[in-house]
Amino acid sequence: MTYGLGLVRSSTEAFRRQIVKRCQGRSIKDVSCEYNLPYTTVERWFYLYAADQLVEESATHICVDEFALRKGHNYATSVLNADTGRILAIVPHRDQEAITSVLQKITGTIRAVVSDFAPAMAHAIRTVFPSAIHVLDRFHLVQFFTDALQRRRRYLGEAKKHHKSRFIDRCLACKTEDLTAEERGFVAEWQKEDLHTKHIYQALNHIRYVLKATTMIQAKCRLKEWFKRYQFHVCGAVSKIAKTLIAREQALLDTIVSPLSNGIMEGTNNKIKLIKRRGFGYRNDGPISSCDFAWKPGVNFVIPEFW
Questions:
Q1: 89/221 Cα distance (integer angstroms)
Q2: Tens of pLDDT along 188-197?
Q3: How far is CA 205 from the centre of its chain?
């Protein structure tokens, strides 16, 4: 390579690989400044040799979820080790075929799989890991009720200002014990104004009570009571949610008694969104979407800080 001085400098393969090792857990800019090397040169070496330094990793508990490469257009499915938080595999698309293919690339004896309520997820997990426990994400379960509350308030047309709308949504989504006395008074007023809002709010707090069960016997009793009360409820939104959940009764029971959650996956998805924002203006996804090295199936990888 030349630096415009008429000089040519060369490097050995061993030197380049050592430089790539220095990039693990550090930004490429820091490494290039430390060794007085051009940024683009270190970046090129990193993409060239990083794949050879990845370490295979087996898992017993995994999280699977989708994320948007381009929201509304292109999606991908990723799998994480629920114990270590390491990315195990990523494939394009989010249909059942794509989810099945990415799960088949995972090595190890899988005992539990955490996912959202997507039907394609459930079918793929049963196909690839029939003996594994399917744990549903509690955040998405609560989100069924919070979304129903938001739709109802929008339908009533009572939250016309943006800040008021957000305040109402937050009060209705929070636990009662987390609200102030004034906010609890507002919630009581909104329940008196509309019976459907009251029914959805009560069903949400009841399902939170069900999720607090500590044993399988206790979980079965509480969940059975919840279904008995809300499966044929007069509020259409609540009965619809109950009919959706009753088809996943066994998965819900495993979710109640399991300590696993999809929080680590959601945090990783947020990091991916941050990478996309910081890369705004690039004409393509480059190596991030090609998955040539960074997300090689069944391997361990640390995302460098420069992303």
A1: 38
A2: 888 888 889 8
A3: 24
| Whole-number Å distance between alpha carbons of 301 and 55 | 8
Please tell me the class of the 56-136+262-300 domain.
Answer: alpha beta
SS3 call for 300: strand
Whether the CB-CB separation of 114 and 88 falls below 8 Å is answered with: no
**Helix (H, G, I), strand (E, B), or coil: what is residue 62?**
strand
Q: Where are the domains of the chain?
A: 13-53, 56-136+262-300, 138-257
Axis-axis angle for helices 195-211, 236-246 (nearest 10)? 30
Backbone φ, ψ for residue 8 (5° rounding): -120, 125
**What pTM does this model have?**
0.69
pLDDT tens column, 211-268: 999 999 999 999 999 999 999 999 999 999 999 999 899 999 999 999 888 888 888 8
Residue-level length of the chain: 307
Place of tokens 């270190």: 42
- Name every residue whose Cβ is closer than 8 Å to that of residue 118 and which is 6 or more positions away in sequence: 66
Burial 1-38 (b: 16+ CB within 10 A, else e): eeeeeeeeeeeeeeebeebbebbeeeebeebbeeeebe
DSSP string covering 66-123, please?
EEEEETTTEEEEEEEETTT--EEEEEE--SHHHHHHHHHT--S---EEEE-S-HHHHH
- Do the strands 299-300 and 55-56 form a parallel or antiparallel pair, or are they unpaired? antiparallel
